[in-house]
Hints:
Elements: H1 2-21, H2 26-53, H3 56-67, H4 71-78, H5 84-94, H6 96-115, H7 119-145, H8 153-217
Helix pairs in contact: 2-7, 2-8, 3-4, 4-5, 5-6, 5-8, 6-8, 7-8
Amino acid sequence: MENIILGEPVLGNLVIDTFKAGGPIMWPMLAVAVVAVAVVLERLVWWQIQAARRNVPLRAHVLTAVDQGDSEKATDLAANSKDPVLRMIWHGLTHHNFSLQGAMQVQAGEELERAARFLPVLDTIITLAPLLGLLGTVTGIMAAFRVVGETTELAVKAVSGGIGEALIATACGLAIAIFALLPFNYFQRRVARLRFELETNATNLELMLERSKGAKQS
């Protein structure tokens, strides 16, 4: 137990010392890392909430009602639903006398906008973090070269410090980019999946309405 307790400050001091050794560029990289963590956590929570709101059985009931020509029942079933697909269907049904396709496109766009929220931020971080690391590498090497040629012990420490700053900055920049890249690709896949669901259900709704209208006319 004593080793664990004594090890905690040592680990903390190691992190702080490494951060300081990375040079001034570590401060903007820290800000970028905090933003990346915040965005990833926010998106994970958002998608968990959306998963709980999905109601596939209700979608089937709504489409069945439409297929049977009972648009009013389908509208009532889809009303007040938090499922993004059902929200789109409801908007389409309530505006089908004006522009079914237009209403669904507008609502689908809003749903996709919510789903893709903050993804451009992660995309920027994936590019920005390695560039900040590269900038830290350049400034660290420049600091090391400023004292090249001197033979004092202080010069040796300065050169090693500059090289260490360059390596730490590079490693941190790459680590932040890798951390942001994996969830970014995952969230992009979720958005693509949602887009597919919206498009598929919108097409099904249009076909069923056309079929029910044809059945009534015949």
